[in-house]
Structure formats: structure tokens, C-alpha cells
Amino acid sequence: MAASQTDVSAISDALRQAAAQADNLSISQLLMDTARVQKMTATHQKLHIDYSRQLLTLDTLHNLHRLADATDLRAHINAMFAGEKINSTENRAVLHVALRAPKSASIYVDGVDVVPNVHKVLTDINAFTDKVRSGEWLGATGAPLTDVVAIGIGGSYLGPEFVFEALRMHPPAVKAAKGRRLRFLANVDPVDVARARDGLDPATTLIVVISKTFTTAETMLNARTMRAWIVDALGPDAVSKHMIAVSTNLPAVQDFGIDPANVFGFWDWVGGRYSVSSAVGVVPLSLQYGHDIVSEFLAGAHDMDQHFRSAPFDSNMPVLMGLVGVWNSTFLGHATRALLPYQQALLKLAPHIQQVDMESNGKSVRLDGSALSVPAGPINFGEPGTNGQHSFYQLIHQGRVVPCDFVGVIKSQVPISLDGEPVSNHDELMSNFFAQPDALAFGKSAEQCRAEGVPEELVPHKTFPGNRPSSSMLIEELTPFTAGQLLALFEHRTAVEGFIWGINSFDQWGVELGKVLAKGVRKQLQMSRKGASVSGFNPSTSALLKKYLAGSVSS
Ligand SMILES: O=P(O)(O)OC[C@H]1O[C@H](O)[C@H](O)[C@@H](O)[C@@H]1O
Questions:
Q1: Which of 213, 222, 360 has most ligand 1 atoms within 8 Å of CB, for mutation?
Q2: Is 362 near ligand 1, meaning CB less than 6 Å away?
Q3: Chain centre distance of CA 271
Q4: In this structure, is residue 11 part of a structural domain?
Q5: What's the CA-to-centroid distance between 153 and ligand 1, angstroms?
Q6: Whole-number percent of the chain with pLDDT over 70
Q7: Would residue 14 count as lying in a domain?
């Protein structure tokens, strides 16, 4: 994939020049150009995005598209879908798209079509989860397993929780989940263990241990803790009825003592943060909602995969969002971006996308190991609106500039209209969704404040600079299908940005060092609990450890 370096440099120079002059642009004026506004939208089925509030002229947009071409974006996308080993530091393919491909598709890795294996696992999951849900699979006491604790962390937790929450109040999902509970246990903190099993009875609980590697320290300790909870209550033989696993490491699962017949596999070409469409998400979500709902979710993700793969770039949602991201991050120099869903069901979207994006693109070197002049991916954060408005929006209106992605839903999953109220609850929510992007874009001048009679000494405090970029996305309805589309859309935005930056978005070496250092601390704590003194750490860590071991901050 030989991108033309000359073209990339020339186009980047043009974009840098445009960025240097961006202060002279006014979003409020750009918004008066109807043709531009129409051009800066894209609709795909029940999703619509409007990025006309970006500090972006049509000329600059054109140059961003040229940058995509010069960096061979199309070839990178094709290579990903073709199963090429684009995760070069781990020599792996990147094929989460294969997890939602239809049976009729063929995708080869090392000469093997992976699609039949994907569908074999899905069929096995459907058979197992049907048995649990119907009461054919019973616990050790003969009671049905109505509750599930899904143990896993990072990619083995965040995606499944996002989908679980997105569908919790979706009426068909509510019906399908009747009488069932799904809890997640991610943190190794004993408080999280207590929260996960609070009110649950081992006799009616199924534990799903989810770990790609089956070596993650937190997950393994939580698995042992929950196994002890089952064994203490029901005896050792109960484990085979009450514990199942999802992993790529079958020997380790067997060593742990889970029946190999109750393990659902996936593959090294599924990155942890891209694994919600694998057994990682499908097992807990099917236990809760049944496989029809999960199939719709996978179909939605597949639909977005197809759109990403085949739509022309000027109407390709993930590509357009990625180009906007590159513009804001690399050229305008914004270090952060906010994801602001005006939809409580999407409360776990931002936490999930934080991992998808920051673990993928939080890199400082290119694929060839050479240093980037500026780090690649931005800091992502977010909260549902309107909650965020009462929390951090002060900063995004009058403090630092944070490009925002607003997400709104047209039809509520559960509409409420109170007699006597001027608007429905959902209209109230959405009034804020429509108002905030304009508040950011237009701001409020000192003159406007004065015209309103604001006392002169308060004018600087009540002025809003405006000219703050955002995009607004509308989803017709939040369903399993659109939740799948949304997930894949954000996954692919991250890939687009990474491809243009020339980095490997699919490894995560940056998480290793802390894990290694924790081993030394763990050993020290173990020895110190038997009387050994603290040694081998720097003065700061030694002092902190001594206080911890002494149980007091004053020692
Ligand atoms: O699924 P596991 O192997 O337990 O890994 C869980 C998580 O831990 C790792 O540290 C990585 O940062 C994540 O990408 C991964 O999803």
C-alpha cells in the first residue's frame, strides 16, 4: 500500500494552512450557506448525520477527501475486510466484521474461510442460551438459572454492557428479558463483587467468565471468587452447571475447571475492544434477551459494515466522521472530543467508545515505528444529555474548545406525556439536543448581553465565545438493529482515523507496563503480610505502600 508521500505532504500543507486561518472562519456564517449545510449531511437508512457545524469549509472538506485518497484509505479498508494481517505488531487479521457476516459470505484468514466457524459458534450459543432461558438447563438444585453474572473487563465487558443498557427499555427486549437479570462484574474491587452478587442466590445464578486470554488478573480472581461463592453454597459439582466461559484460550479454561462443552470460542483476529459481536457479547446478551434480538443487533452492525465497505466516501458515515476527527485533532489541534447522547439508554456508549477509540488510537508512533509529530487519537469522554449539561458543559461553552458529537433519537423507546405539560418528556429532552449545538456555534456576544441589560461588570462572565464545532446525529429509533449500526459506525470511525494517521489501531502495548509493575507490588504485599519489610521501590511508592500496609495514613 504505497501512499504517495509527496501527495500526502502537499495536501497536509494545504490543510495546515487552512487550519492556520480557521480562526477567521465563523460557524454561524458557514451555517447560512444552505448548499454547504446540505452537502455536510449524510443519511443511511434510519441514521442521519449533520456535520455542518464543524469549522470546515467545502474546500477543506475536499482536501480531507484528497488526504483519504492519498493515504490509500480505500485500500486499507479493503485489506481489513479481506482478512489481511493489518495488525502487524501482533501479526493478526482484524476481522470483527466477520462476526456479523451472513452465512453466505466467505472471508479467509490463512486460507481458511472463517465464516462457517462464526456461524457454528452462534448456533451453539443459541442452543445453549435457549436451554437456559426455557428452563431445560437447570442449576445444581434443580432450579432454573434466571440470573447471570458476566465476569470480564475492558473489551470483555464494556461493549456488552453498552448493548445491554441500550436495549433494557426497548419493549421487545423487556418482554424477552422478563424474569431475568444480567449483572456485570468487571472490577477486581471486592465492592464490585458485593454489588454484582447483591440479592442473587447461587442456586439460580449462572456465571459467565469472559476473557479472550483467560489470563487477565482481575477477571481470573473474580472468577475464582465467584466459583468459591457457588461451591460454598452448592458444592464442587455445581460448577459444571453454574459456570461457563467465553475465551480464545480453551486449555486455560479447562485448567480452571470449566467443562469444555460449556465454552464458547472466538479467534485471535477479534480484538478485545471489537469483540462485542463475538461470543463475548452474544452469550450474555442472548441469555438476557434471546437470540432473535441479538441477531437483529448483529444484522445492524453488518449493515453498517456494508455501508462502510461500499458507500462512496462523500456519503460514507464512518469515513466522514473520521475525516472530521482528523481535521479537529491533527489540524485544529483539539486534544479532546465529547460524545453526548441525548438518550439515557446510551449511557454506556461513551465508556465503550472511550476504550474502542483511546486504546486503538492512543498511539505516538506510525506502523513503521517512526514517531508521529503529535499523538494520534484524542481524549474521548462523554455523558448522556441533559445530565452532562449540569456537569461539564460549562467548560465546553466557556472554557476549552471540545468538539462534540451529539446523538439524538427521534422516537423514544418509552414515551411519556403528562397532562398539562407543554411538551412530552422526550420533546423536553430533544429541545436541549437541538439547542446545545447552536449555543456552541453561535455563542452570545458582549453586545447581546448589554442589549439584555446585563450589568457591565458581568458582561465578560456572561459572554459565550461561540464558534465551537459539533456534529449532530439523529437515529429514528433505538432498536437492536440501530444499536448495532451505531456500534459499527464508531468502530469504523476509529479505523478510518487510524488508517489516515498511518498507525496500528489494533494493538495495545500501552496497557502492559502497569500490569508488569503490579506483579512486583503484588509480591511485595504478599510478603509484607507475612512480615517482610518494603524494599526495592522508589521513596514515594515505598512510603505509600507502608501507609497502606500499616492501615493508616499517619504512619
Ligand atoms: O478479554 P481479556 O483477555 O480478559 O482482556 C481484557 C482487556 O484487558 C487488556 O488489558 C486490554 O487492555 C483490553 O483490550 C482487553 O479487552
A1: 213
A2: no
A3: 12
A4: no
A5: 6
A6: 99
A7: no
C-alpha cell at 399: 472554557
359 is catalytic: yes
> What pLDDT score does 5 carry?
81
Distances 148 to 56, 107, 208, 234, 259 between C-alpha atoms, Å? 48, 33, 7, 16, 18
Q: Are strands 379-382 and 336-342 parallel, antiparallel or unpaired?
A: parallel
3-state secondary structure of 180: coil
Tell me how far the alpha carbon of residue 209 lies from the centroid of ligand 1, in angstroms.
13
Distance CA 197, CA 243 (A): 14
What does the alpha-carbon distance between residue 303 and residue 394 come to, in Å, rounded to a whole number?
37
Which residue in the list 120, 390, 519, 547 is annotated as catalytic? 390
Same domain membership, residue 249 and residue 105 = yes
Q: Cα(543)–Cα(537) distance, rounded to whole angstroms?
A: 9
154 lines ligand 1 (CB under 6 A): yes
Tell me if 70 is assigned to some domain. Answer: no
What pTM does this model have?
0.97
Nearest CA to ligand 1 atom 9: 154
pLDDT above 70 (res 2): no
Task: Tell me how crowded residue 530 is: count the other CB atoms within 10 A of its CB.
Answer: 6
234 and 324 housed in the same domain = no
Cis peptide bond N-terminal to 386, omega within 30: yes
CATH, residue 154:
3.40.50.10490
DSSP code of residue 71: T
Number of domains in the chain: 3
pLDDT digits (tens, 9 = 90+) for 320-360: 999 999 999 999 999 999 999 999 999 999 999 999 999 99
390 is catalytic: yes
Q: What is the ipTM of this complex?
A: 0.98
541 and 407, same domain (yes or no)? no
Strand, coil or helix: what is 416? coil
Question: What pLDDT shows up at residue 3?
Answer: 54
Looking at residue 555, what is its pLDDT?
82
Nearby residues of 131 by Cβ (< 8 Å), 6 or more positions away: 137
| Nearest-CA residue for atom 7 of ligand 1 | 154
**Strand positions, DSSP E, 443-488:** 470-477
Q: Does residue 73 form part of some domain?
A: no
292 and 144 share a domain? Answer: yes
378-423 pLDDT, tens digit each: 999 999 999 999 999 999 999 999 999 999 999 999 999 899 999 9
**Which residue range forms the structural domain that includes residue 525?**
516-551
Q: Read off the pLDDT of residues 31-68 as tens digits, 9 standing for 90 and up.
A: 999 999 999 999 999 999 999 999 999 999 999 999 99
pLDDT in tens, 420-473: 999 999 999 999 999 999 999 999 999 999 999 999 999 999 999 999 999 999
